[in-house]
Specification:
heterodimer; A: alpha+beta; globular; B: globular
């Protein structure tokens, strides 16, 4: 009976056919089965897909990962977190400083101020021994004749509905005669050093109203708004730090076009172009202008002293020839866009963001949404091609799947959770790394609350908590104690500051000295009030929630009553943090590599929606913070950063808890490859840099067929 | 016949319009905003959000948004909110990915369910019948996603081979045969797991259908004629038992869109189900809407196909 036979045979054949395919699939041990290229392919698992592959537009971690491989900046950080030249070979710092010739002032001896007189007096002063520091730094000075500038000033006006509305008004400013100084080095105290010559009060009382012209029909109210801003926009004494980059010659973009100074200037202009809505605008806002000196030399002139601004040049450089007006026009023609679409067309709409062309060590090949992004090594990369031929970022939006694929050998790297790392440590197949990143977790106290405003009280609260416990039980050991606001692996952190001791008795003694006595119920009490406050954090972070509970318990032991609550992130920010309506919070920061702490700790940043939401306010710290961001000398910056670290530690505005370690698990077959001059390969076990960067030598990584013995 | 088909198509187009309007309304009734204009995203400035909202027509009245959707879809210019890619191209690529899974799964269901169901019917009350009934009910009641996780863990830990996705990653360099077999291997688990429920249910149907037919007079007559048992079962009984399944075949088609959301998600299979799931999470209205209308279209097409097939297979039915 044929039908019967087929009915039985069909499922059998189908099953056999499906199951035999197992023998064709590479297993973990033999990943190169039928596919030798697997050994030179690196596959990274990512939870989310990239959004925009453009260095000036991307804002998510998946996109920045890919952009980091495809594009290259002028600078990056070396293994000690110092700046290192990439597309730039050399960079020099100098300064141009300007001083108004202020007609309302007189010299200390009563003579009237004029341009030539000012220059002469300074020149002769520089001859004196007491001005030798200044004299060494001054390259030259000249009088700049008066000019007239037309500029738009932002204002707030009343809209038709009576609500305040942003607007701008165009004014003419008759810039007075100025003296321009060329300095060898940036010196934030330059004008202070000049004071003995020009008079202590020279910088004050400049009569701005005599130099400004308003167009007709401006209300006195608006005029007052403009006048209030003039001294900020046209300062009497202005510092213009200058960075001159020498660019690497012979570097090519992946399409073969040569990289030059025009690309740098174009990238800067693209960021500042409001149509492109770049999230990097604030990093480049301090720049006054970018000037091309020759095809491989660019000069960047800054509006004011702001030393961290140089870090912005680590951002990838765009190829001008693919994104300039002409290229955009061609793209619009090619895509046959409607007139309405052309009107709104900007860099965000360009196909470039899905097919990027950069000058980095990997070139873009393919992007399948929600599946993978494929990169291929750039054979003619200026530093030599990378060891891995292909790089894949696989999008696996699920932790379980990521782990399973890692076990099966279809992913080389994924962000393993601390508990998974603890498991991998037992397995001889893998090598694993834990190293410091730039983040930390803390308990922040609202310094404005009378109960918590005393540094001694905050110190006592910190001493009652056993941070080692958090690290051991919440992080499986994947964390380190911290003492202050700087990442431990940067030079700004002062390693001599000792962490608060775990000493509940000592904490109690401090509080007793301040008048807090234990009452009949076991709570601390002063003037009839018990020591009670609220500790809150955001939902969705189990570790923070646990910290909260452990801290609550620790404080209970010394008689401090703490009520805890968890809020959904948006509510947490809107109703509590942004409005400073909280007593204490558990939160974390991800820091940068620069020593600028202005946004987090300066007292001017303690308003609503600002980041100094704990309201830390210490004039000494404020002064250090400002001086650090205006200082261009690294050694001096470091000294001041250490002082600031100590000051903040003294004040304990936060209880600094720990910095979580970043972890990475890799197959032991992945090694560092060194090539000798004769092409001979030697292998070395992968190691992180001193500052904790595990992937720093990624370009030299490769997978071997067998597990090597080191 | 042709007139019947024509009339039915016209009717179904009207139905499709009504369905699309309903879906459109439903999607916009659901809470949440497209992820691109999510106001709680700290990186977005209010004016940027306003600009994007305007580009997406999100502030226009609902009926206008519907008109824009139809217009863009007809012109083929409809773009996803999420990545600005043309929706139709996206759906087509995902459709091609879902297709092998669908075919393989269907093949497994139909080839396995029939022998099992027939045997169970023939040996009614015997050990095979009872055990297949037990297994079938166990499979129907056991949550498929849980079984999938167990299977994935088991296979990966024991055999150390990849099972997730539609192929082993990084296999582009391999020769054709390896690549093909690798794809087949990746079909095995998801299609098998997706098929289990189907096998259980369909084999039950086959069994009851066979039982009904076997007790018919003409089967008794065939047996009385002295025909071989196999001839009676497979020639006389089976053909008549098959009739209802022809209609089921047409109804399988919409399963292409919604049938595998769970398994595609677990196995990270970039098919239509996963596309729809992700689109819903990010409130990608154009994709959700188009996909749902696509699903509705397939359902309507399926019913039409089964009606027609029925008419073709069963001489007692005439379509007019």
């Amino acid at each position: 009976m044929r039908l019967k036979r087929w009915l039985l045979l069909a499922p059998l054949l189908l099953t056999v056919f499906l199951l035999q395919s197992y023998f064709w699939v590479p297993t973990y041990e033999k990943q190169a089965t039928g596919n030798p290229k697997r050994l030179v392919t690196y596959i990274e698992g990512s939870i989310g897909d990239a959004k925009v592959l453009n260095p000036i537009l991307n804002a998510d971690s998946a996109s920045s990962n890919i952009v980091g491989h495809v594009f290259e900046g002028l600078l990056d950080l070396d293994e000690n977190l110092n700046l290192r030249g990439r597309l730039a070979t050399k960079w020099t710092l100098s300064e141009k400083a300007y001083l108004f010739v202020s007609p309302s002032n007189r010299f200390p001896d009563g003579t009237e101020v004029s341009g030539p007189r000012l220059v002469n007096r300074i020149r002769s002063a520089l001859q004196r021994a007491s001005f030798s520091v200044l004299a060494e730094n001054v390259k030259g000075m000249e009088v700049v004749p008066p000019t007239s500038l037309t500029q738009k000033i932002p204002i707030q006006e009343k809209g038709e509905d009576g609500k305040p509305k942003r607007g701008e008004v165009e004014i003419t400013f008759n810039m007075p005669e100025r003296v321009a100084f060329s300095l060898h080095q940036v010196d934030q105290d330059f004008f202070a050093r000049l004071m003995p010559v020009i008079g202590d009060r020279y910088l004050e009382n400049f009569p701005y109203e005599k130099f400004v012209q308003f167009p007709d029909g401006i209300t006195p109210e608006i005029k007052a708004q403009v006048r209030a801003q003039l001294s900020g926009i046209f300062p009497v004494a202005e510092h213009n730090p200058i960075i001159e980059f020498s660019l690497r010659k012979g570097v090519r973009f992946h399409d073969g076009h040569e990289f030059d100074a025009g690309d740098v200037k174009f990238t800067y202009e693209a960021i500042m172009n409001p149509n492109n809505l770049s999230p990097r605008t604030s990093d480049f806002e301090p720049i006054k202008f970018v000037k091309i000196l020759d095809s491989h030399k660019v000069q960047v002139v800054y509006k004011r002293l702001f030393s961290p601004a140089i870090n912005a040049w680590m951002m990838g450089i765009l190829p001008e020839h693919l994104l300039n007006k002409k290229a955009m026009q061609q793209e619009m023609e090619r895509r046959e866009l409607s007139d309405a679409a052309r009107e709104a067309f900007g860099m965000r709409d360009s196909q470039f963001n899905r097919h990027p062309v950069g000058s980095g060590s990997y070139r873009f090949v393919e992007w399948q949404s929600d599946e993978f992004i494929h990169l291929e090594r750039f054979e003619t990369y200026w530093e030599g091609p990378a060891e891995y031929h292909d790089f894949f970022m696989r999008i696996i939006p699920d932790f379980f799947t990521q782990e399973v694929e890692f076990h099966a050998g279809a992913v080389d790297d994924y962000s393993a959770q601390p508990h998974q790392v603890a498991r991998y440590k037992q397995d001889a197949q893998y090598q694993n790394f834990s190293s410091l990143g730039f983040g930390y977790t803390y308990i922040g106290y609202n310094n404005r609350r009378p109960l918590l405003s005393d540094p001694e009280v905050r110190r006592a609260l910190g001493m009652a908590i056993n941070v080692e416990e958090f690290i051991k039980y919440l992080l499986y050991g994947e964390g380190e104690r911290i003492t202050g606001p700087y990442p431990k692996n940067t030079q700004w952190n002062d390693p001599s500051v000792a962490p608060l001791p775990y000493d509940p008795e000592g904490a109690k003694a401090i509080l007793l000295k301040l008048g807090w006595e234990t009452n009949a119920d076991g709570w601390l009490e002063k003037d009839g009030k018990i020591f009670e406050f609220n500790l809150i954090t955001n939902n969705g972070n189990p570790i923070r929630k646990n910290i909260m509970i452990i801290a609550q318990n620790a404080w209970k032991k010394i008689g401090v009553k703490c009520n805890t609550q968890v809020f959904e992130w948006a509510v947490f920010l809107k109703d509590f943090v942004n409005t400073a309506q909280f007593d204490a919070v558990v939160l974390g920061w991800g820091m940068g590599v620069d020593p600028d702490l202005f946004q987090l700790w300066h007292s001017s940043e303690a308003g609503p929606q600002q980041l100094n939401f704990v309201g830390y306010n210490n004039p000494k710290a404020d002064d250090l913070i400002v001086r650090i961001r205006q200082e261009y000398d690294v050694a001096r910056q470091r000294d001041m950063a250490h002082q600031l670290h100590e000051q903040i530690y003294e004040d304990q505005p936060y209880t600094f808890l720990y910095a979580p370690l970043e972890t990475k698990v890799l197959d032991k077959k992945i090694v560092l490859v060194h090539r000798g001059e004769d092409g001979q390969e030697t292998y070395e076990k992968i190691y992180p840099t001193k500052t904790g960067n595990i992937s720093y030598y990624f370009k030299k990584w490769r997978k071997l067929e067998m597990t090597p013995n080191f | 016949m042709l007139a019947y088909i024509g009339r039915n198509i016209a009717l179904r187009v009207v139905l499709l319009f009504i369905v699309s309007v309903l879906i459109h309304g439903l999607i916009h009734l659901a809470p949440g905003e497209p992820s691109a204009v999510d106001p709680s995203n700290p990186r977005m400035k209010p004016q940027d959000i306003a600009k994007i909202r305007a580009a997406f027509h999100l502030d226009d009245p609902l009926y206008l948004q519907y008109v824009y959707w139809v217009r863009d879809l007809a012109r083929g210019e409809l773009k996803s909110f999420k990545d600005n890619q043309p929706v139709l191209g996206k759906i087509w690529r995902r459709f091609l990915n879902s297709l092998p899974l669908f075919i393989c799964s269907t093949l497994i269901v139909w080839t396995l369910a029939f022998p099992v169901g027939i045997q169970a019917a023939i040996r009614r009350g015997a050990v095979f019948d009872r055990s297949s009934t037990l297994v079938a009910y166990a499979l129907i009641s056991f949550p498929g996603f849980f079984l999938s996780y167990i299977m994935i863990l088991g296979v990966v830990e024991v055999f150390h081979v990849p099972v997730i996705g539609l192929r082993t990653f990084g296999m582009e360099g391999a020769t054709g045969a390896f690549q093909f077999m690798d794809r087949v291997w990746h079909l095995v688990l998801p299609s098998l797991l997706g098929a289990l429920g189907g096998i259980a249910i369909l084999s039950r149907y086959v069994r009851s259908q066979m039982l009904e037919v076997v007790s018919q007079d003409y089967v008794r007559t065939a047996k009385a004629k002295g025909l071989h048992q196999d001839v009676v079962i497979y020639r006389h009984a089976l053909r008549n038992a098959l009739l209802p399944f022809i209609t089921m075949f047409g109804l399988l088609i919409p399963g292409l869109v919604g049938g595998s959301v769970i398994f595609e998600t677990i196995f990270a299979w970039p098919g239509l189900g996963l596309l729809g799931y992700e689109a819903i999470l990010s409130r990608d209205f154009p994709v959700i809407l188009t996909l749902n209308v696509f699903g509705a279209m397939l359902t309507l097409l399926g019913t039409l196909v089964s009606d027609v097939l029925y008419g073709v297979a069963d001489p007692r039915i005439r379509l007019e």
